Amino acid sequence: MGGLGESAPPQAPPSHAARKGVLGGLGAAALMLLGKLKVLGFLAGVLKLKTLASMVLSIALYATEWGFPFAVGFVLLIFVHESGHAIALRREGIPAGAPVFIPFVGAFIAMRGMPRNAYVEAKVGLGGPVLGSLAAWAVLALGLRSGSELLVTLGHAGVLINLFNLIPVSPLDGGRVAGAFSRGAWVGGYAIGALAFVATRSPLLLIVLVAGLYTGWQRWRNPIPGYHDITRANRLAIGLSYAALVIALALTLPLGLAIHPRLGA
Question: Which end of the chain is more exposed for a tag (fewer CB within 10 A), N or C?
Answer without folding.
Answer: C
